[in-house]
Amino acid sequence: MHHPPTDVRPSRYSFRLADNTNTNVEILEASSGFTETGFKVWVAAQHLCELLCRIPSVVSGQRVLELGAGSGLVSAVAATLGAHMTASDRPELLSHLRAVAAHGAATPRFAVVPLEWGSDSVPWPAGHFDVILGTDITYMNDCAPLLTVLSTLVGTSGAVVLLAHCVRSPEQAAGLWHTMRQRLGGVVWVYDGYDVLAACYDASRHDVQAQGVITFAYGAACPAKGTHLSASYELFREKPLLELSALVVKREERLPGMLGPFLREESDGS
Predict the structure, then answer these.
(1) Tens digits of per-residue pLDDT, 73-117?
(2) CB 77, CB 108: distance < 8 Å
(3) Which of 146, 131, 134 is nearest to 67 (CA)?
(4) pLDDT by residue (tens digit) across 45-83?
(5) Rounded CA separation 23/89 (Å)
């Protein structure tokens, strides 16, 4: 039985826009309870909100889906920036998400739908959404169900995924990057946080920017020049993580349409 926390109360967040004005949202959030992840705002969610507010064109006027929306902060902020916003999560969290969606001013309101990554089908065809967002939903070692959902939602369309990942373990972050490159059939690159990802491969680094955030981007093809994603893609092409620790990376291989390091299993033997 899923029991929501008893300390849920309004929380106000403010993020600076590119024109130096602020966007403000108020959501309903629990102040404690690590296991109640759907009721608490985590670092990656705040980081992605800051990114979206710096470049509102990422979501403005777009059909946007948030996976694992949890507290609803990212969905509320994206809605204030002009996104046609849909938030999704496990069925047991939907009542809380709906309360957040109906809370406060009309501007940040958004639709709420159930979506479990391990289910047999995704209820939308590829390209139904222009942008798919996710924050702190890649903390598990096995992300296969999530990556399957992402592949289905993107397909061969022009949809773009932004996943904000909070680094709690360098090994897990490096492994996530490797898994995404192997299992996602399009183009994967670092939209923001290149230095954080690079630090995960450096055996001499012991700090590895604890709580640092990497925002991965994924699409079926390279972003068109002049779009809001092309600048980050071109920048990452210039710095494809070449200086990597031999303790983690045995060689650097390029796959068609892919950028970055290729990790081999230690049992590879060569």
Answers:
(1) 999 999 999 999 999 998 888 888 898 888 766 666 899 999 988
(2) yes
(3) 134
(4) 999 999 999 999 999 999 999 999 988 999 999 999 999
(5) 24
| 9 is a domain residue | no
> Does residue 219 lie within any of the structural domains?
yes
Q: What's the Cα-to-Cα distance from 203 to each of 11, 148, 200, 207, 248, rounded to whole Å?
A: 39, 31, 8, 10, 8
Domain that holds residue 152: 35-236
10 occurs within a structural domain: no
Averaged pLDDT in 10-residue chunks for the chain of 270 residues: 63 86 80 59 91 94 95 93 94 87 75 86 93 92 89 95 91 84 89 85 59 91 88 81 43 39 38
User: Can you tell me the distance from the alpha carbon of 41 to that of 25, in angstroms, rounded to the nearest whole number?
Assistant: 13
Nearest-5° Cα angle at 194, 190 to 199: 130
Which tokens hold the place of 37?
Answer: 């992840």
In a domain, 97, yes or no: yes
Q: How far lies 123's CA from each of 53, 66, 71, 103, in Å?
A: 29, 14, 22, 26
Number of compact structural domains in the chain: 1
Structure tokens at 117: 């990554």
Greatest extent of the chain over all pairs of C-alpha atoms, in Å: 60
Quick one: which of 47, 45, 54, 58 has its CA closest to 229? Answer: 58
| CATH at residue 163 | 3.40.50.150
- The 3-class secondary structure across 97-146, one letter per residue, is HHHHHCCCCCCCCCEEEECCCCCCCCCCCCCCCCEEEEECCCCCCCCHHH
Structure tokens at 118: 């391990």
